[in-house]
Amino acid sequence: MTDENDDCFDRLWTPHRMAYIKGEGKPSGPRAQDGCPFCDISAVDDRSGLVVTRGKAMYVILNKYPYNSGHLMVIPFRHVADYTDLDSEEVTEMGELTQQAMRTVREVLGPHGFNLGINQGQIAGAGIAAHLHQHIVPRWGGDSNFMPVIARTKTIPEMLDDTRERLAAAWKTVG
């Protein structure tokens, strides 16, 4: 007797991703009080929020659903959706934190390169379009393999808490 799922494919179960797929934790509207997870993260302790460091107007966190190990985001404390709505001090701090993030990730994880970017609006790929955030994604030669293409699965070799601890510890020592 053949099992109905016996199609010769192995399964890699990732039930924790269902929250992301269902959109859990996404705001119900454009305002901070509409359940913005980035506004919520800024109010919790660093470990719980995966916060690596906090600046005056921005903070840096590990992405909860990373493309690669060390995938960081620079996020304004202020609930703002559009890059053009940042004031000059916020733009400056976002740039400085991005530079420091790259230095720190290079020191701790040794990537071969980076993807930097802001997905401006839902149609442009922003998962949480209501609150601006810049991605800093470390890249290594060969880090894009068959898993995402064939199995729609990313393999992340280190737990987020461990990566956050290493990056937070190195943040102040890396110039």
User: Beta fraction of the residues?
Assistant: 5-15%
| Helix and strand composition category | alpha+beta
Poorly predicted tracts of residues: none
CA-CA gap between termini: 64 Å
CATH architecture, by name, is 2-Layer Sandwich
Structure description:
This protein is α+β, with helices and mostly antiparallel strands and 175 residues long. The protein has one domain: HIT-like (HIT family, subunit A, 2-Layer Sandwich). It has six helices and five strands, in the order αααβββαββαα. A hairpin with a 3-residue loop joins strand 1 (51-54) and strand 2. The N and C termini lie far apart (64 Å). The model has no long low-confidence stretch (mean pLDDT 85).
What characteristics describe this protein?
alpha+beta; five-stranded antiparallel β-sheet; 6 helices; 175 residues; HIT family, subunit A; single chain
Provide the fold topology.
Blueprint: H1 18-21, H2 37-41, H3 46-49, E1 51-54, E2 58-62, E3 72-76, H4 88-109, E4 113-117, E5 134-139, H5 146-151, H6 160-171
Antiparallel strand pairs: 1-2, 2-3, 3-5, 4-5
